[in-house]
Design goal:
Layout lengths: L1 H5 L8 H26 L2 H31 L1 H13 L11 H10 L5 H16 L9 H39 L1
Helix pairs in contact: 2-3, 2-4, 2-6, 3-4, 4-7
């Protein structure tokens, strides 16, 4: 309710940054909504979330494809905007009270976590844009791309640590119950 009452304003410095953000955000919400439907274990809720996720996917494709055109027209500026948004990415609900606690529970439930964020949100769009294959970038865009590669590596390490922690917690719970 807080999110709906206050709204959400992603403070983008320019159109390229805004487009990059929404391309990732729409895919992130598509996946989170779809996984929420599955998690609900309620067929009606699942069908509703399937429909919402389908709409989110259409939005993502629209923004992703606009950025594809931007990468053809102004590749260096587009790469810098993409990298800036990946490095600073936050879901729209990040400002609601108790978000970190809620996000942790969502991650533990397998709805949306670092692995999903890296492998199912960031990587498919970055591969679609062929971000690591682009040539002719200026020095600032090349530096941004290196920061992106480092960030993706860091997310991989963090995702593995989270998965190990969850696996350990699950094993301990099973041992206590058994």
């Amino acid at each position: 309710m807080t999110q709906l009452e206050t709204g959400y304003d992603h403070d983008s410095p320019d159109t390229l940054h805004g487009l990059a953000y929404v391309a990732f955000q729409e895919l992130a919400t598509r996946i989170a909504h779809r996984n929420t439907g599955r998690y609900s274990d309620d067929p009606v809720a699942d069908r509703i979330m399937i429909r919402i996720a389908a709409d989110e996917n259409l939005h993502m494709v629209f923004y992703r494809d606009i950025l594809s055109a931007a990468l053809e027209i102004e590749p260096s500026a587009a790469v810098q905007a993409i990298v800036d948004e990946v490095l600073a990415f936050k879901m729209p609900g990040a400002g609601i009270p108790g978000f970190i606690r809620k996000a942790a529970r969502i991650a533990e439930a397998g709805i949306y976590d670092l692995r999903v964020h890296r492998d199912d949100v960031l990587m498919p769009i970055l591969k679609h844009w062929r971000i690591f294959e682009l040539s002719g970038l200026d020095a600032a865009a090349e530096a941004a791309r290196r920061r992106l590669a480092e960030h993706l590596d860091m997310l991989e390490v963090a995702a593995r640590k989270f998965e190990a922690r969850i696996a350990g917690s699950t094993a301990a719970r099973i041992a206590r119950a058994g």
